[in-house]
Amino acid sequence: MKTLLSFGHGYSARALAPLLLAKGWRVIGTTRSDEKAEALRAEGVEPVIFGAPLDDALAQATHVLTSAGPGDDGDPVLNTYLPALEAHLGSKVWVGYLSTTGVYGDHGGAWVDERTPLTPSTRRGRWRVEAEAAWQALAARTGAPLHVFRLAGIYGPGRGPFAKVRAGTARRIVKPGQVFSRIHVEDIAQVVAASIARGGAGTVYNVCDDDPAPPQDVIGYAATLLGLPLPPEEDFEAAEMTPMARSFYAESKRVRNDRIKTDLGVALRFPDYRAGLVDLLQRDDGATIRDD
């Protein structure tokens, strides 16, 4: 039986799991709480509390996906499970790592692709570069084909702007020249599923839609869809923001996604934020879009 072991089975991996379960796969997902474990079990995923022994699961896994974000002490999966991974990974085990386009750093709104040098300008971006390198080193030692997915800002069900727009708390922060790339979570799922189906040698994929856009445009379009007034514009330099929120504006770039189309044959369900927001509104979504 094809079996996916998913480390840090969170938002993106939970969108992938139904695609695999529908094809008869077994999906094992790690989580850090009993409450989340019960939620995963209800979705057909076999939960394991992160930190518990996973030698048996790894021995049965035909595919391994890791979504856990690194910190200043490194990658949590490698910190916890490196000996077991070294023992069980091999050339026949597909390995996927969900990274971020933050590894490219700031390019002043210019285009980047998978060949662009990694020059992160934030601490989180540097952690991701280090984590990618650590997983690549593991893949080289074990012979496992590593597929790195560099995700743009993720949105989807539970992560849309409509609640804040309705409540009048949405903000249109304007920084001249600022653009972000984004991706709907269901398009992340189909890209990873396409890579799994293709197999082959490991590579790197940028996972983003076709339309990098200023963040204020997204909020403005959400307001237009709701028939509400546009939230007032706020100058970035003068706006009151948390350090975390402000750090999202430290980098501006347009990310190319040609490889997921040419290599994997993916046709995005949501090729731009407009299509994505229309979909979320039809689902009556109500949380916040994230550009991270």
Poorly predicted runs of 5 or more residues:
286-292
Query: What is the CATH architecture descriptor of the domain at 3-156 and 182-210 and 255-269?
Result: 3-Layer(aba) Sandwich
Helicity, as a percent range: 25-40%
Q: Given this structure, which CATH class of the domain at 3-156 and 182-210 and 255-269 is correct?
A: Alpha Beta
Mean pLDDT value:
95
Tally of DSSP β-strands: 13
Major sheet summary line? 7 strands, parallel
Derived structural class: alpha/beta
Our estimate of the beta-strand percent is 15-25%
Taking strands numbered 1, 2, ... along the chain, how are they ordered across the largest sheet? 3-2-1-4-5-7-11
Over all CA atoms, what is the radius of gyration? 19 Å
Report the CATH superfamily of the domain at 3-156 and 182-210 and 255-269.
NAD(P)-binding Rossmann-like Domain
Summarize the helix and strand pattern as letters.
Answer: EHEHEHEHEEHEEHEEHEHEHEHH
CATH-defined fold name of the domain at 3-156 and 182-210 and 255-269: Rossmann fold
Terminal CA distance reads 35 Å
3D shape: globular
Instruction: Give the number of helices.
Output: 11
